[in-house]
Write a structure and sequence with these properties.
heterodimer; A: 461 residues; alpha+beta; Heat Shock Protein 90; 3 domains; 5-stranded antiparallel beta sheet; 5-stranded mixed beta sheet; B: alpha/beta; Rossmann fold; Arc Repressor Mutant, subunit A; 5-stranded parallel beta sheet; 4-stranded antiparallel beta sheet; globular
Chain lengths: 461, 226
């Protein structure tokens, strides 16, 4: 079977299909857009998390200061600290207070953690940052203040509080999971929608292709689907072209038939008139024969439709059967044993008239010269890029055969019809003409049966 | 043998009719497909010669109509186009043979004779009944290998009888199939022709090939070919 029209064009030069183009562009845009959105949201959330972290540390810092008692001997905090995590080693929340000389208080939770910030800030300054204590990342907040103790002594203190990233990371990864999960789901849905939209929008084009295939296969005459406005112009134009082409072909054949009738009938009259004479002048008869042969040859040549672009594949065997029946009727006294050799269901891409002309003339020749046997071989050849297979037709008989020096003359195309080899009408020249219109080859040989073997090969397309 | 010629070109129609009549056939002519159909229906046609390019009713349609009405006489197509498609369509419509214009009259006569012979059920061109042999190709009759001089009408009469061996054929049937429409249709003339034929075929009255069945007709009485 023929390949779909789109594929036929695509296989010659790799052209990306419309479907793929639109899908690729849509996917790229979608991924870029969603990726950008995702990273902006991610960034914003991280910043807000850090802000929240800073606020929390600030809060912890204030509660520590509120609970603290500054005396001449230093900073004292109650045994039960305001946040119990400060009392538990490794809890993740830490605090350290330093003055100009060194540490004056550290939270019990700092036990075993190598975190000893020495930075001193001017009163009123805060610094929020992320740093490493050993290998543990921490968010830290430092705050400078001056505090007058009960004895009136002015202390310049810097309070450091820190929290590890456990809660930050837990919140961040929870957010990221849901963010990217939803974005992924959204892009899948969007892509699927895009795919459906594409399929739906390109449906009319696929229908055009299917309709054309139906025409090619002879199942339809015209594109008869209903098409959207965008391609209506195209399909209407195609339909107009198809029907005008058909009308033209029909008119052409009718004109040829009329021409044949109006040329041949007067010739027949002339011929009949000459027949009535007691002695017909031979040159007159000869001239009539010449006109007749020339008219016949040219008309049959003109009638050869040649390969059609949208020709339905025509099964060869039924046409062959019809021709054989016709010939058996026309040669009732010849009882030729006809052997058919074929494989599969060979098809011919062209009009029935042309196939009949090809096979009919060869078979007629075989009936004329064959004695007892006749063999027809039909072999499908390899398919071409358009999916159309070539075809080999062979007709052979057990007659006297054709001498090699005559073979060329018999098949010579476009030769003056009045110079035909005696015994071979213009039929074989018509065959040669048709074969050349189909860009095929024809050869004459001596076959296994002993007579002439005509071999026609029509190319794949 | 009564022939129907359907041809729209007057000159060709006239030539065909004249030539066929000269060969001893009774010929009716029709100028278009509809007239052809009328004659085909109403007349005892033995064979029709039909041009494919006819006005009113195309030749192919005419043949199909005739066959649909169970007219079985052989049909010879005349076609201007030598295309195989036309030949195949013509023969599939029910015709028996085709001839491409222009043709030689001799060729036409040979085809007509062959079609009539085969329609009568004879596979070979020479009919042999005892010592009488009739060659449908050369239209020669021989008795014991000795050629016999017959007029065209006498030949058709003998041929008609020999095409229906053993059958009783009435004078009316013979008149219908052998006489031209405008000819004197007095059935007594048939008796005259039968008498002449008998004299030529059987001068010593020994063979008696044609029997007379009083009030019923004639019968060709020799043994059919084996």
């Amino acid at each position: 079977m023929t390949a779909p029209i789109g594929e036929a064009a695509g296989s010659r030069r790799e052209v990306v299909s419309l479907n793929r183009r639109l899908l690729v562009v849509a996917a790229v845009v979608l991924v870029a857009f969603l990726g950008l959105t995702g990273s902006i949201l991610d960034n914003a959330f991280r910043q807000s998390l850090e802000q929240a972290q800073q606020d929390r540390l600030q809060g912890t810092l204030y509660t520590i200061l509120a609970a603290a008692d500054l005396t001449a001997s230093g900073l004292r905090l109650p045994h039960a600290l305001p946040d119990s995590r400060l009392s538990t080693p490794g809890s993740g929340l830490y605090a350290r207070v330093i003055d100009e000389h060194g540490e004056i208080w550290r939270s019990p939770s700092l036990l075993g953690l190598p975190w000893e910030p020495e930075q001193r800030l001017a009163p009123g300054d805060t610094r929020f940052q992320r740093e490493l204590a050993g290998d543990q990342p921490l968010y830290t907040l430092a705050y400078g203040l001056s505090w007058e103790d009960a004895g009136g002594k002015e202390w310049t203190l810097t309070v450091h509080v820190a929290e590890d990233l456990t809660s930050y990371q837990a919140q961040l990864s929870a957010f990221r999971r849901s963010l990217w999960g939803w974005l992924g789901a959204a892009s899948a849905v969007l892509l699927a929608t895009q795919l459906l939209v594409l399929r739906w929008s390109l449906l009319p084009l696929r229908r055009v292709a299917a309709d054309l295939r139906a025409i090619e296969e002879g199942r339809a005459e015209l594109l008869h689907g209903r098409y959207p406005a965008e391609i209506l112009g195209l399909t209407q134009g195609l339909n107009a072209l198809l029907s005008s082409e058909r009308r033209r072909a029909r008119r052409y054949q009718e004109t040829l038939a009329n021409l044949a009738h109006s040329l041949k009938t007067p010739l027949a009259v002339l011929r009949g008139a000459l027949d009535r004479l007691p002695e017909a002048p031979p040159e007159a008869l000869e001239q009539i024969a010449r006109i007749d042969a020339a008219v016949d040859y040219q008309l049959r040549r003109a009638a050869a439709a040649a390969p059609e672009t949208l020709a339905a594949p025509l099964p060869v065997k039924p046409v062959l059967e019809r021709l054989l029946q016709t010939l058996r009727k026309a040669y009732p006294d010849k009882t030729l044993d006809c052997e058919l050799r074929s494989s599969g269901e060979p098809v011919f891409y062209g009009s029935e008239g042309d196939l009949m002309e090809l096979l009919g003339n060869l078979l007629d020749n075989a009936f004329k010269w064959g004695r007892q046997r006749l063999r027809v071989s039909i072999t499908p050849l390899a398919a071409g890029p358009g999916g159309r297979r070539g075809l080999r037709l062979e007709v052979e008989d057990d007659g006297p055969g054709i001498r090699p020096e005559q073979a060329q003359l018999v098949l010579e195309r476009g030769r003056r019809a009045d110079e035909q080899v005696p015994g071979h009408g213009i039929g074989l020249a018509v065959v040669a003409e048709l074969v050349s219109a189909f860009q095929g080859t024809i050869a004459v040989d001596r076959g296994e049966l002993g007579g002439a073997l005509f071999r026609i090969e029509l190319p794949a397309a | 043998m009564r022939l129907l010629v359907v041809e729209d070109e007057p000159l060709l129609r006239e030539q065909l009719a004249q030539r066929l009549r000269a060969a001893g056939y009774a010929v009716d002519t029709a100028v278009d497909g509809e007239e052809g159909l009328y004659f085909g229906r109403e007349y005892p046609v033995d064979l029709a010669v039909i041009d494919l390019g006819l006005p009113k009713l195309p030749g192919i349609d005419l043949i199909q109509r005739l066959r649909a009405e169970d007219k079985r006489f052989p049909i010879l197509i005349l076609t201007a186009r030598g295309r195989w498609q036309d030949k195949v369509l013509g023969l599939e419509a029910g015709a028996d043979d085709y001839l491409v214009k222009p043709f030689e009259m001799e060729e036409l006569l040979a085809r007509v004779a062959a079609l009539l012979r085969r329609a009568a059920g004879f596979a070979r061109p020479v009919l042999c009944f005892g010592p009488i042999s009739l060659d449908t190709r050369s239209q020669q009759v021989q008795i014991d290998g000795r050629p016999l001089e017959l007029t065209a009408f006498e030949y058709r009469l003998l041929e008609y009888l020999m095409f229906h061996p053993g059958e009783v054929i009435s004078k009316a049937t013979l008149t219908e199939h052998l006489y031209q429409e405008d000819q004197d249709r007095d059935s007594n003339t048939i008796e005259v022709f039968i008498g002449r034929l008998r004299k030529k075929l059987d001068p010593d009255n020994r063979l008696q090939p044609i029997e007379t069945l009083r009030g019923r007709g004639y019968r060709f009485a020799l043994a059919p070919p084996k």
